[in-house]
Amino acid sequence: MVHMGTHEDLPQHLRLYTTPGSPLPIYRQLVDQVRAAISSGKLSPGDALPSVRSVAEDLVVNANTVAKAYGELVRAGDVVSEPGRGVFVALRRPEVGPLERKRKLLAAVERVVAEAIAVGATRAELVAAVDEYCARAGVLPGPEGRHGRESA
Q1: What is the pLDDT of residues 63-119, one digit of tens each?
Q2: Is residue 113 in some structural domain?
Q3: Any long-range contacts for 20-26 (C-beta under 8 Å, 24+ apart)?
């Protein structure tokens, strides 16, 4: 299933947004939101992302900022760009080795902790939020199946 349409056509829970005052650059906020939507299953392989122009207009940001975010997602293999058609969630996620996985995880943790500090969250609130997100995303605590998800 490919969801073709504008940013406004996407379900409310997939809307992209920016957080004013965040220590994260806007393009990074967008990258993180798209990756979270893919990882949680809110975006499925083949689903279309909203156009660069529609996101830029909706968020009142420069189109180059959105293009930079999409470019990073393309380079990482999270999405594919089809000239004349749009940007779509990749059918297969790229395999990541253990060292690269750890590097990416630490970078993500750094961003999350910076955001938590910016909003004045305590360590306990941060841990609770991570646990809550993991529960919603179906990620189990501890050494389970591949990618931290329960194996069938």
Answers
A1: 999 999 999 999 999 999 999 999 999 998 767 788 888 988 898 899 889 989 989
A2: yes
A3: 21/118, 22/115, 22/118, 23/114, 23/115, 23/117, 23/118, 24/111, 24/114, 24/115, 26/59, 26/61, 26/65, 26/69
